[in-house]
Amino acid sequence: MKHGMEDYIFAQHRNLDGYDLGLYAIFDGHSGHEVAKYLRSHLFENILSEPGFWENPVQAIKKACKATDDEILENVADSRGGSTAVAAILVNGVKLLVTNVGDSRAISCKNGRAKPLTVDHDPEKEKDLVESRGGFVSKRPGNVPRVDGQLAMTRAFGDGKLKEHITAEPDMSIQKIDEDTEFIILASDGLWKACDCIKNVDGAQKASKKLVKEAKSLGSYDDISCIVIMF
């Protein structure tokens, strides 16, 4: 079934409290675009305004994600739909905070080799989490595992009708950006065969466009969004 584009991209440079920040995110909406749109406008603002962000960024980001999800469920009319989020905060060009909710992904490329920075929140892998919250995971022939037979991930923002059985709690990682780091890719699940086809491309915008073109040529029919951060 065809539908309108439901992904949103965020990329911004900001100076805050004496720190040089690069803010990057992919929000992959499903069953509507309003949740992803809300995340683009509010998630980073909530994270960076969270007390204690600089002292304990992991705890602050988790609290901000919970607060943002609560806002969505209360204020966004289309909160029956939902969105994944993969977000990165680059601090002074040397430290990278990566946040993931859902099945969008981040990878880094060092010396020509890809390294996953996130793990997909897959219903089969997190079946115990779903069942502990009173839900179930089912899989129809020829389809992917789904929470309550509906959602193909265990973590998402929004999805009010499934919220008792899923969560918006993120996975977090902190990465050091060193001289061997060539680039970072954030992308929605519509794209994934990444490092090889862009390792000789000059410029992040050209690289991201080439990745999307490659994914389409391989037959991906999903929404495709991509950010490449080059070093």
UniProtKB/TrEMBL annotation:
Q: Which domain of life is it from?
A: Eukaryota
Q: What SMART domains does the database record attribute to this sequence?
A: PP2Cc
Entry keywords, A to Z: Hydrolase, Magnesium, Manganese, Metal-binding, Protein phosphatase
Reactions it catalyzes: O-phospho-L-seryl-[protein] + H2O = L-seryl-[protein] + phosphate; O-phospho-L-threonyl-[protein] + H2O = L-threonyl-[protein] + phosphate
User: Gene3D superfamilies attached here?
Assistant: PPM-type phosphatase domain
Q: What GO molecular-function term can you cite, just one?
A: protein serine/threonine phosphatase activity
Broadest EC class? hydrolase
Question: Which ranges carry the PPM-type phosphatase domain?
Answer: 1-231
**Which family does the UniProt entry place this protein in?**
Belongs to the PP2C family.
Any idea what this protein is called? Answer: protein-serine/threonine phosphatase
Question: What lineage does UniProt assign to this protein's organism?
Answer: Eukaryota, Viridiplantae, Streptophyta, Embryophyta, Tracheophyta
